[in-house]
Amino acid sequence: QVQLVESGGGSVQAGGSLRLSCVASEYLYCMGWFRQAPGKEREAIATIYSSSGTTAYADSMKGRFTISQDFAKRTMYLQMNSLTPEDTAMYYCATTALSRTRCGRLAPGDFNYWGQGTQVTVSS
Questions:
Q1: pLDDT at residue 27 tops 90
Q2: Phi, psi of 52, deg, nearest 5
Q3: E strands, the chain, where?
Q4: Distance (Å, rounded) from C-alpha 84 to C-alpha 76?
Q5: Distance CA 76, CA 32 (A)
Q6: What letter does residue 65 receive in the DSSP assignment?
Q7: In what order do the strands lie in the sheet with 18-24?
Q8: Dihedral angle of Cα 58, 111, 74, 99, to the nearest 10 degrees
Q9: Helix (H, G, I), strand (E, B) or coil at 90
Q10: How buried is 124 (Cβ within 10 angstroms: 0-12 exposed, 13-18 middle, 19+ buried)?
Q11: 83, 84, 57, 58: which is closest to 68 by C-alpha?
Q12: How far apart are CA 109 and CA 124, in angstroms?
């Protein structure tokens, strides 16, 4: 059973930045960040194909969010800049054994293992 632990969430004012981390007990092929705000569906932020470092971003997340990894530490990161109150959500990391092509689809339903989430709250 793969275990994922997120950290780095918290409260920040609009315009601020946060860096989330996700440590995995086992690295599978595809890692991703997702978020879910109250009353909304879970949405994809970005994925990274671990062996090649190939990244994919949801269109609405491009520019302010950056996904990266430290493969040796089995750790994935999400750098978030210029945060707005609309970014307030629970942020989750997830992993699955998918091809690079499918990893780039950013489909939450494709991911088998999920962390508990870390809360990000952005105040105006």
A1: no
A2: -105, -15
A3: 4-7, 10-13, 18-24, 30-36, 43-49, 54-57, 65-70, 75-80, 89-96, 113-114, 118-123
A4: 23
A5: 8
A6: E
A7: 4-7, 18-24, 75-80, 65-70
A8: -80
A9: strand
A10: exposed
A11: 57
A12: 32
Question: Which tokens in the block code for residue 10?
Answer: 């918290």
Tell me the three state secondary structure of residue 102: helix
Give the pLDDT confidence of 81-110 residue by residue, as tens digits.
999 999 999 999 999 998 888 999 999 999
CA dist., res. 30 & res. 74, Å (int): 12
Cα separation of 88 and 71, whole Å? 28
Q: Which tokens hold the place of 42?
A: 């879970």
Taking alpha carbons only, the member of 30, 36, 18, 1 closest to residue 117 is 36
- pLDDT for the residue 28: 83
Other beta carbons within 10 angstroms of residue 78's beta carbon come to 26
Tally Cβ neighbours within 10 Å of residue 81.
13
